[in-house]
Specification:
The structure is a single chain. The chain has helices spanning 4-15, 24-34, 45-49, 55-73, 127-132, 181-190, 302-307; strands at residues 81-86, 88-93, 96-101, 111-122, 142-152, 158-169, 174-179, 197-205, 234-241, 264-266, 269-271, 282-284, 287-289, 292-294, 314-332, 335-355, 358-359. The protein is α+β, with helices and mostly antiparallel strands. The protein has 2 domains: 24-69 and 243-356, Cystine-knot cytokines (Cystine Knot Cytokines, subunit B, Ribbon); 87-232. A hairpin with a 2-residue loop joins β15 and β16. Residues 1-18, 75-79 and 357-366 have low confidence and may be disordered.
Length: 366
């Protein structure tokens, strides 16, 4: 019979994750396995011109995105700084509105973004306007509000990326919250330093019944086409000061990496748009923060190493990871359709020190 301490060590060994940075080959291999494909599908421009992402696919993607944000921010909510940025509606066309936020010096240096929340004030609908639409059922009185990040490229072209979506009722009024953490992450990685954060807000029908045909047009947010004032759009930025909360495990972005740098989590952005195989195949997201574990670990005393002879030197590895939701194009029977997939272990949540993958008890952590 195996000793209890050896069984425990081998069990922990099986749970530990790899320490090396995520590679393009690993990402592609995970996506192919998840879709049970042997090679990247061939998708041309004609396939994509007719492709429309249905509302239920967008909603499924947003649910997974919110779950991912919740996992990443868990445990950090009670040790964070809070900043509020006022925004304004730059332009409106039909049911689509463009929001702009000046972001210069809004995120303090040496900080970690925990969560970004967009708050829009939904104005009450006048009774006369409701009366003109007749009697609306709870379902037909709903509209879907979608928030997308708008990136303006250097060549003048632009691309939108789905960030959050929720249902609102025309009978309601008050503040509505949207999780736009991913949009701020994109802005940090891909925008020029002084470029503002642009968010596109669209209001669409949720149901196609005749009674609901124009009900979504009743949804309006404060400050649309009006001077800034009470109820203007707000962007809440929740951050951690890494000088005070370095125990969260993120590397100091201002400190150079040296041989003596202790084990920490370093930012690493994966640009999917820059990968040739992802073109026309990966619809969302345009990229993501994967992070990687870097630095050195304190080694155990020789006496302890003698009692655990099968364990090698302690290394900095990913001890907690999170999945990455995606919307991809699938071709079946000559028809192209969008599909939501979730790739496991794509984002590093936490780095720890381990001996060849076996987590070392907390008292030995550096």
């Amino acid at each position: 019979m195996w000793p209890l301490w050896l069984c425990w060590a081998l069990w922990v060994l099986s749970l530990a994750g790899p320490g090396a940075a995520l590679t393009e080959e690993q990402l592609l291999g995970s996506l192919l396995r998840q879709l049970q494909l042997s090679e990247v599908p061939v998708l041309n421009r004609a396939d994509m011109e007719k492709l429309v992402i249905p509302a239920h696919v967008r909603a499924q993607y947003v649910v997974l995105l919110r779950r991912s944000h919740g996992d990443r921010s868990r445990g950090k909510r009670f040790s964070q700084s809070f900043r509020e940025v006022a925004g304004r509606f730059l332009a409106s066309e039909a049911s689509t509105h463009l929001l702009v936020f000046g972001m210069e010096q809004r995120l303090p240096p040496n900080s970690e973004l925990v969560q970004a929340v967009l708050r829009l004030f939904q104005e009450p609908v006048p009774k006369a306007a409701l009366h003109r639409h007749g009697r609306l059922s709870p379902r037909s009185a709903q509209a879907r509000v979608t928030v997308e990040w708008l990136r303006v490229r250097d060549d003048g072209s632009n691309r939108t990326s789905l960030i959050d979506s929720r249902l609102v009722s025309v009978h309601e009024s008050g503040w509505k919250a949207f999780d736009v953490t991913e949009a701020v992450n994109f802005w940090q990685q891909l925008s020029r330093p002084r470029q503002p954060l642009l968010l596109q807000v669209s209001v669409q029908r949720e149901h196609l019944s005749p009674l609901a045909s124009g009900a979504h047009k009743l949804v309006r947010f404060a400050s649309q086409g009006a001077p800034a004032g009470l109820g203007e759009p707000q962007l809440e930025l929740h951050t951690l000061d890494l000088r005070d909360y370095g125990a969260q495990g993120d590397c100091d972005p201002e400190a150079p990496m040296t041989e003596g740098t202790r084990c920490c989590r370093q930012e690493m952005y994966i640009d999917l748009q820059g990968m040739k195989w992802a073109k026309n195949w990966v619809l969302e997201p345009p990229g993501f923060l994967a992070y990687e574990c870097v630095g050195t670990c304190q080694q155990p005393p020789e006496a302890l190493a003698f009692n655990w002879p099968f364990l090698g030197p302690r290394q900095c590895i990913a001890s907690e990871t999170a999945s990455l939701p995606m919307i991809v194009s699938i071709k079946e029977g000559g028809r192209t359709r969008p599909q939501v997939v979730s790739l496991p272990n794509m984002r590093v949540q936490k780095c720890s020190c381990a001996s060849d993958g076996a987590l070392v008890p907390r008292r030995l952590q550096p």
